[in-house]
Design brief:
Mean pLDDT of chain A: 97
Distance between the termini of chain A: 27 Å
Largest sheet of chain A: 6 strands, mixed
Oligomer: homodimer
Shape of chain A: globular
Radius of gyration of chain A: 22 Å
Helix content of chain A: 25-40%
Largest interface: A-B, 38 and 37 residues
Structural class of chain A: alpha+beta
Strand order of the largest sheet of chain A: 2-1-6-3-4-5
Number of helices of chain A: 23
Strand content of chain A: 5-15%
Number of strands of chain A: 17
């Protein structure tokens, strides 16, 4: 895993170079932060010729470690106008690693982007015109690609939203069995891909050499032990059984569940949407429905599911907490089948469910359709794919929707929609949304895991905690492992050193790894500073400082300058 | 002229306080810069509760000096997100001055803005619900207000675009005879007015004391002499005869006339649109048509016109260079009657013609209608007033239109459309667009007046020249006089001292005045720095650095950091 493949999307020229020794030390999110900083002018047009779209495998992407192989996608974001990394499960990351490809970098842009497919193998790369894929939905695209490129290929693509460069568009990936669609959803990276005239990427590892570790036996031992530690953690079992919706009941109880465009933190229909109900419905309906599904080969957590419709046919895979929160309670929609269909429609047109759900909530507040109108919401999501003017507005996200409809209450920070944790009732996440270079992104440092130790509506402890969580996330995102393996690293941080030694022969201490995570964050902050999107300019939405959130009637009251002080702090103790 | 009237648009409470001695020294644009800096959080939502909308009379607003009485309107702009001042002729400024009102400040905002009228008199102020004005066009609104408030009242209002808080909305004003509609057009101030729930302002000076000067005789002498100097300048005569369209032929010859979404700097139909043609058509058609019309009582330049349709009925008053450039050549439309109607439609729905024309050009490039489709363009402008989704997109300006339609070539700087001077062929204006706190705004420092002394496509001399022009503009905008009186001040800068001495009894040197202008600019820059919209983050559009502009095939090639150096320079010599 040493190749960097660069595709000039204007001339069509493709080059393949070996990573330098410095670049070899970068992976996933870190690779993106470093290359954007080195090569992309921070004030460039995110959809213009100077932005670059990067796919980077994590540092441990070609190992047998469970969940390794998550793929980081990054660029300057058309939504936040800052650095953006979104990572995803699915097969493509692992296959890129198997082809020896560390990163794929799309450069420049054609004047008139037309759909093309980039085909990657262990030895070559080809950019192929694919007019037949124009404006195709994601499932149609994958189905056509599967026919053409065979069962072995890893597939990534954008939907019509990405082709139309809508700032809410994501990049989708298939899993091993074409059952799930996974997404590098946030920040509009699908729009950047669309601006480059790339509809899909096909990765075929036929004939690739098997990946090698410096010390395969040590890697095997460490990976096995890591899995055991992880399996012993009760969180793993909970995620396996109930998936990410496991947290919904608690989110509702804590009064932080987005409801009707963030006008309440608790939803009267929460019980019908919680993890227990999801699991029960799946079990009762049977058919294609299943809990405990993998998004990545070799994952032992298996938090995904296949959510069936009443006849047992797959409605969407996988239904998750954020989707239920944003497309469900946030839209006043309390029926899981409706939410599953809305989720599926987002996956089909190719938009981030969080951004789309928030945009729908804003549109409902703006009177386009009433709260709770599931059929109306489905129609609006279809309009995104059709590219109607309203559809284009919604597909460009919650902030744009608010501007066009004249709605002032827009739940977004730095241009990006707030995920399923209202910062008024979980202040740590407000700190993360404001201070992270990623904008409103729970995966950048999710305070939900601290609700039992740091009072979520209190004012104390959130800044240090957010910084700690942000460093953790930056590390795991750079290794290319799922955030859900965190418990194993917390229990035994020495796994970092063992993994690096076994994979690369590097001597790396836990402190080195923590410093690496901090360096990733600082690099991202510096890019954003030069891009003009520092934390000092973007607070939580004004209404969250003046409008108490029922039922806890919490306000967000941490001053902006106090939050900014996060970036003047030293690395806290006990990151791992 | 010493009263500050503050209207709390949430509670409806109105207060009236006397200006402090410090505030007495602020007028027009300077008043806005100072009060925004003092009272408005730079990162606030421009359409939210923390922004303030300010109407400020210039320091010489209550004098007999020709063109005095221009009214400055300002706020944090929803288009640029920085400080914005747009000033306008029309009767309202003079009438406010006559009522002794130095400035009017709208504060806070209602949750659900409904149309209201603020009625101002010499002694009182009243906020009146006016549901009958909801979504009324500008002419309908003025007509209803005129009936209700009588022939003497000065009227300001917003159109439906402002009510729907579209970021391209302006604030319109009547002239003395209800013939012309003038606009504080740029930067979306109409949207800010809409967000405050204020549809119109009525100023009735019945019973007001006549304005007094410290030394009326000296003022009379100075004002008379000033008018004579101005009348002796050949530019004045040219403006009187041909209006602002006088410059079109030269703009076309220099290759800087926006044509088909800034893809050319010269238009094959320019002759049919130039000042000579405008004057000829008006003279030939007769009827209500007239050249040499005043927008402000007492103006001796009289650059306005009433443009008649073929039957001699008023089509629009006044047709001007920017409107012809942006709604005409920039849209590939070469018929003056079409342009007049487009101009009128902008005035009716209440949007800035420059922003709307640029948005139409982008929409044409995006394939919504073809270039040259005048009927299609009229329909699109009507849609702004109707609030269709496409209309809302267009009404929110060129940048928003580009985002929604996926068009990369968007002629805007800092979110605001570039006026009728392509910076590739007039580099001084590129410098102004980038460095001015106002964004792409020719009135902030128009290099067109230097085309004979500084080669417009050359790289030299533009930075110092732009700074000089920006200081001049800031001074005149703070005095409340038209930029077209500049020649008289250039010829005899001592008029500044004479005016201040006669009006206020102040001893003010020309250098003091120049320092005042520089201070206004620095104050605005500082607001923008805190708002995150400094020049360092906003270059000219990328395509202007890579796509040569025919017929001169000029590129914009002044580096951004060189332009930024403008704000590290000392005050240049010969500002006046």
């Amino acid at each position: 895993m040493k190749w960097l493949v660069r595709v000039d999307t204007r001339s069509g020229k493709i080059s393949r170079t070996e990573a330098t020794s410095e670049e070899m030390r970068w992976g996933g999110r870190m690779f993106i932060a470093k290359v954007l900083s080195r090569e992309v002018p921070p004030i460039c047009d995110p959809l213009g010729r100077n932005n670059k779209l990067i796919f980077a495998v994590g540092l441990l992407g070609d190992t047998p470690i469970t969940t390794s192989g998550k793929l980081s996608v990054g660029a300057k974001s058309p939504l936040t106008h800052g650095v953006k990394e979104a990572n995803t499960g699915g097969e493509a990351g692992k296959l890129l690693a198997r082809c020896g490809i560390k990163a794929l970098i799309f450069e420049d842009a054609p004047d008139k982007p037309m759909p093309r497919v980039l085909k990657l193998t262990a030895t070559g790369a080809e950019l192929i015109d694919a007019p037949e894929l124009a404006r195709k939905l994601v499932s149609e695209t994958f189905s056509l690609l599967r026919k053409q490129y065979g069962p072995r290929a890893g597939l990534l693509c954008i939907g019509p939203a990405g082709e139309m460069t809508m700032a809410g568009a994501g990049v989708s990936v298939t899993d091993a069995n074409d059952v799930q669609v996974r997404y590098a959803a946030r920040g509009g990276l699908g729009a950047v891909m669309g601006s480059k005239g790339v509809k899909a990427i096909v990765v075929d590892d036929s004939g690739a050499e098997p990946a090698t570790c410096m010390d395969p036996a040590a890697m095997k031992d460490a990976a096995r032990e890591f899995a055991q530690v992880l399996l012993a953690d009760p969180k793993t079992d909970n995620r396996h059984t109930f998936g990410t919706p496991a947290i919904l009941a608690l989110a509702n109880e804590l009064g932080l569940l987005p409801t009707r465009n963030f006008s309440s933190g608790s939803f009267e229909g929460a019980e019908a949407l919680c993890g227990e109900t999801v699991a029960k419905v799946i079990a009762e309906r049977g058919g294609e429905g299943r809990s405990g599904v993998r998004c990545l080969r070799g994952c032992i957590i298996q938090c995904s599911n296949i959510f069936p419709n009443p006849s047992g046919k797959k409605s969407v895979a996988s239904i998750q907490y954020e989707n239920i929160a944003l497309l469900g309670s946030n839209c006043g929609i309390g029926d899981l089948d409706d939410i599953a269909e809305l989720n599926h429609l987002c996956n089909e047109v190719g938009v981030d469910t969080i951004e789309a759900g928030a945009a729908l909530g804003v549109a409902m507040e703006g009177g386009v359709i009433p709260f709770g109108d599931a059929e109306g919401a489905k129609d609006l999501l279809r309009q995104i794919g059709q590219g109607t003017y309203l559809g284009r507005v919604l597909g460009n996200g919650s902030v744009m929707t608010g501007k066009i409809l004249g709605v002032r209450r827009v739940p977004a920070v730095k241009g990006q929609a707030i995920p399923g944790y209202d910062p008024r009732a979980l202040k740590g996440n407000g700190v993360t949304y404001v201070t992270s270079a990623m904008g409103a992104d729970h995966t950048a440092g999710n305070g939900f895991e601290t609700v039992r130790t740091i009072p979520p509506t209190g004012r104390e402890g959130h800044i240090k905690s957010s910084l700690r969580l942000q460093i953790r996330a930056a590390i795991l995102d750079s290794l290319g492992v799922c955030l859900f393996v965190r418990p194993a690293f917390i229990k035994k941080p020495e796994f970092f050193s063992r993994f690096f030694a076994a994979r690369y022969g590097w001597k790396v201490s836990v402190d080195d790894v923590i410093r690496m995570g901090f360096d990733v964050l600082k690099t991202e902050q510096e890019f954003n500073r030069k891009a003009g999107v520092s934390a000092e300019f973007f607070d939580v939405p004004e209404f969250m400082r003046t409008e108490p959130l029922p039922p806890k009637n919490a306000l967000f009251d941490i001053p902006l300058d106090e939050m900014q002080s996060l970036w003047t702090q030293e690395i806290p103790e006990n990151v791992f």
